[in-house]
Amino acid sequence: MNEEQRMQSFDEYNKNTHRIGRISCIITLILLLSAPFVIGLYLGAMPDFKACLRGFLAIGTVYLVSCIAEYLVYVPMLGAGGSYLGFITGNLLNM
């Protein structure tokens, strides 16, 4: 296999890895964010949307810097596949 074929193969691998990783991240995000509301509908105790938004903003601003730093540190070390797996499972320290 010559260098051009190897690069094409690697590019195809990266493309598929990012496609599967993005789909998995979107599905995971939808499931994680919808779970409290589905449970609330089932039990008849819906959470207050304004309180949820205030809580999310309060915690989200604290973790924003951490999220950016983790992305910049872990992605070069783990690669595309390991990064998607680590960010979905939340088990980055063991990767």
Structure description:
- The chain is mostly helical.
- 86% of the residues lie in helices and 0% in strands.
- The chain starts with a helix and ends in a 6-residue tail after the last helix.
* Count of strand segments: 0
Characterize the biggest β-sheet.
none
Strand content of the residues, in percent? under 5%
Following the backbone from N to C, one meets helices and strands in this order, namely HH
Count of separate DSSP helical elements? 2
Helix content: over 70%
Span of the ends, CA to CA: 31 Å
Low-confidence stretches: none
Overall residue-averaged pLDDT value? 88
CA radius of gyration: 18 Å
Gross geometry: elongated
**Backbone structural class:** mainly alpha
Kindly list the characteristics that best describe this protein.
mainly alpha, 86% helix
In short:
With 95 residues, this protein is mainly α. It has helices spanning 3-43, 49-89.
Indicate the topology.
Layout lengths: L2 H41 L5 H41 L6
Helix pairs in contact: 1-2
